[in-house]
Amino acid sequence: MQRRRLLVELIVMVRVILPLHLRTLAQVDGEVELPVAGEPTQRTILDALEARYPMLRGTVRDYSTQQRRAFLRFFACNEDVSHQSPDEPLPSPVASGIEPFMIVGAIAGG
Q1: For position 107, what pLDDT does the model report?
Q2: Which CATH class for the 11-105 domain?
Q3: Which pTM value belongs to this model?
Q4: In the prediction, which pLDDT does 31 show?
Q5: Following DSSP, what letter does each residue of the chain receive, concatenated?
Q6: In the chain, domain spans
Q7: Disulfide engineering: 94 pairs with which of 15, 34, 56, 90, CB 3.0-4.6 Å?
Q8: % helix / strand / coil in the chain, to the nearest 5?
Q9: Separation between Cα atoms, residue 21 and residue 72, nearest integer Å
């Protein structure tokens, strides 16, 4: 007799704060709440964001490389996580929805 394993994937709700230009493009006010399957990482949050708001595809990450766009930064618990691996688990306050995952537009010029 073959045993079957039942796999249950945990869905968590995460909060995401977008910069004004991306909120305008996505036609949302304030922060968004997204269901994320499994442990929240930058990649899983951005996958969920682009699935819910397809007009944001290519604006946060490059289409082909899936790398963060140059003038955007990612913050979790007020720490810059932009250069961490996109598959690294985010801090538990972000994963539990207590703290938001923030996408911030950088400013350049001189």
Answers
A1: 77
A2: alpha beta
A3: 0.87
A4: 95
A5: ----PPP---EEEEEEE--HHHHHHHT--S-EEEEEESS-BHHHHHHHHHHH-GGGTTTSB-TTT-PBPTTEEEEETTEE-TTS-TTSBPPHHHHTTSS-EEEEE-----
A6: 11-105
A7: 90
A8: 25, 25, 50
A9: 12
